[in-house]
Amino acid sequence: MLSAKFSRFIAVLLLVIPGLLATYGFLLMKNAVFEAFGPGTLPWIKFIIGFILFGLGIAFVGGWIFYRDRKRNYVAPRFREKKQKQPR
User: Fold this and answer.
1) How far apart are CA 20 and CA 53, in angstroms?
2) Residue-wise DSSP of 21-82
3) Spatial distance between the Cα atoms of 12 and 62, rounded to a whole number of angstroms
4) Distance of CA 33 to the CA centre of its chain
5) pLDDT tens digits for 24-75?
């Protein structure tokens, strides 16, 4: 069986990896924009790949935070789970 420390380590890795992907995507976009100031044009492929990595990483981390806050009832009323009405 997995120990509690190892389970927490795996959980942290599940958040760190998308964060690193988002960071790398941001750096790709930044480098593509700064390369546009030099000779040549904006490297669109590098920019698009960076945008996709950045979007996926941010979406994963944001979704995880939203799921956790929703479970602990920290979100606004419009985002709370709808309760089923009891049939009479």
Assistant:
1) 9
2) HHHHHHHHHHHHHHHHTSSS---HHHHHHHHHHHHHHHHHHHHHHHHHHHHTT-S-GGGSPP
3) 15
4) 22
5) 999 999 999 988 888 877 789 999 999 999 999 999 999 999 999 999 989 8
Query: What one-letter code names the amino acid at 27?
Result: L
Position 72, amino acid: R
* Ranges of each domain in the chain: 10-78
pTM of the model: 0.79
C-alpha R_g of the chain: 20
Tokens of 41: 């044009």
